[in-house]
Specification:
This protein has 66 residues and is mostly helical. It contains one helix and no strands. The chain starts with 9 loop residues before the first helix and ends in a 32-residue tail after the last helix.
């Protein structure tokens, strides 16, 4: 068994790549399976929200230097 990645042979490198690939596929499959399947078809039937009149917001909490 090789304890250093620098002195590892070709088969050890191949094993590391295969394990990393399997782990990546497992994480991806878990992420796809865990997502919520929300039904957005009902939200598209509502009327859109329209913008109202413009509003100006000001404040004068700072000190004025002349």
């Amino acid at each position: 068994m090789n304890h250093s990645i620098h002195s590892a042979d070709r088969s050890t490198h191949l094993k590391i790549v295969v394990v990393a690939l399997i782990a990546g596929i497992a994480v991806t499959a878990f992420g796809i399976a865990a997502r919520t399947n929300a039904d957005y078809s009902q939200t598209a039937s509502h009327a859109p929200v329209k913008a109202g009149k413009p509003v100006v917001v000001t404040s004068s909490n700072g000190s004025m230097v002349r």
